[in-house]
Amino acid sequence: MLRNFTLGIEEEYMVMDPSTLELCSHEQKIVEQAHKVIPEKVKAEFHQAVVEVGTHICGNIDEARADVAHLRKTVAQIAGDLGYSIGAAGTHPFSKWEAQLITDHPRYFEIVNEMQDAARSNLIFGLHVHVGMENREMALHIANSVRYFLPHVFALSTNSPFWEGRNTGFKSYRTKVFDKFPRTGIPDYFASIEEYDRYIQLLVKTKCIDNARKVWWDLRVHPFYDTVEFRICDVPLTLQETCTIAAIFQALCVKIYKLRMQNLNFIIYNRALVNENKWRASRYGIDGNLIDFGKEAEVNTRALIFELLEFVDDVVDELGSRAYIDYTKEILQNGTGADKQLLVFKENKNLHSVADFIIKEFLKDC
Predict the structure, then answer these.
(1) Distance of CA 2 to CAs 47, 59, 131, 263, 322, Å?
(2) Fewer CB within 10 Å: N-end or C-end of the chain?
(3) Which residues pair with 292 in a beta bridge?
């Protein structure tokens, strides 16, 4: 059964000038060199200062960890040889989007033409986790159910407190930047895969989109693969954080699946309610309160994350992800990437120190 719940991980990295620590164009040199040693796993993104990597289909979290570690080390090595530095954070601490070049590709020019400054300013870096499904019907069922937990895991990933040289007051400002795009955020509930497909067909028919890839929700049934794709998280500073978040998403999918096999289900909550928790997670990370809708009360975010860990505990050993899931407690104790960035800024009063810290953390645990 568990062979269905494969993993695929995508991360977006920032390319920086080692001397100024500003974002800079690598003129696709990193991608070109990477294709020679790891074909199909590294690609350009909308802005020329971004490199995206993606693992192969991984049978378990150990395999995914090895693949992401290899990707981080390879990209860092290639970038260094070409005179660039690489880092992972949801936003750059001080570089301005107005100065960034757009990748020369018809698809990106089309997006700019349609969305204008909403697209040009979308200088953000995310983590996408794919969990394999046996079919699209099951994928939709799991997506409907797991929406409730998105803010909890998102809080653990928060890693973008700065934007264009300012402390935004948010632990994840990346999500605020992305909110300008259409078809983003927590998805609606769909009663069936047919209802979901009719929704997509209507958008295509009315020329809102030309294909289902332009549905950019925080969680989606992937339009072409049999996966549930989690898109809500900031890209984490470190490999270990990335793997912990991926392991949690995988465990949640397996837990919901097993409940379904017992004719049980996790309660479905309204999108508007889940959005309240997403906003709190983006603002406060793990340091605030989320709403426990069952109790109809505010509850400490850390306490709710511990409840999440208890919820999935009976599937963790079967998945072989105990060590990764347990690392959640380290994040809760020592802080998220945002907390660590803010601590560096507090100690140094200098955003260049924050950018340098992001670079130094990139290969930690690799």
Answers:
(1) 37, 9, 11, 18, 15
(2) N
(3) 297
